[in-house]
Amino acid sequence: MFFPLTFIACKKKDNGKGYRDFPKKINIFGINILGSEKVEDSKIIHAAKIMAQYLDNDENGIVDNQEWWIN
User: Fold this and answer.
1) Would you state the pLDDT for residue 20?
2) What tens digit of pLDDT does each residue of 7-63 get?
3) How many Å apart are CA 49 and CA 33, to the nearest integer?
4) Res 32: pLDDT
5) What is the pLDDT of residue 48?
6) Residues 34 and 6 sit within 8 Å (Cβ to Cβ)
7) pTM here?
8) Region of residue 29 (left: phi > 0; alpha: psi -120 to 50; beta: else)
9) Which among 10, 16, 38, 67 is least buried, having the fewest CB atoms inside 10 angstroms?
10) Does residue 30 fall inside a structural domain?
11) SS3 for 29-56, per residue?
């Protein structure tokens, strides 16, 4: 089974209205990892772990590249 990875970037907050089709959510350093009901929890958690490791490779709880990171 193939699960495509989709990135959606938004500058404005829409109060969650655009995310109603994605009820599963994990927040990693301010980045939401979203999933539909059909996506297994383990897949959402796996994606979140990959994002966390990408942003904080030395695992000290701080985003490694602060120049890149805009919060």
Assistant:
1) 75
2) 555 555 656 566 677 888 899 988 888 888 888 999 999 999 999 999 899 999 999
3) 10
4) 87
5) 92
6) no
7) 0.70
8) left
9) 67
10) yes
11) CCEEEEECCCCCHHHHHHHHHHHHHHHC
Residue with tokens 């701080």: 62
| 15-38: burial string, b at 16+ Cβ within 10 Å, e else | eeeeeeebebebebeeeebbbeee
- Domain range spanning residue 64? 20-71
Q: How many domains does the chain have?
A: 1
| Residue with the two structure tokens 């942003």 | 55
What is the largest distance, in Å, between two alpha-carbon atoms of the chain?
38
What tokens were used for 41? Answer: 């929890």
- Sorted by sequence, the CB contacts under 8 Å of residue 6 that are 6+ apart come out as none
| Exposure of 62 in the CB half-sphere (CA atoms within 13 A) | 5
**Which pLDDT score, from 0 to 100, does residue 1 have?**
47
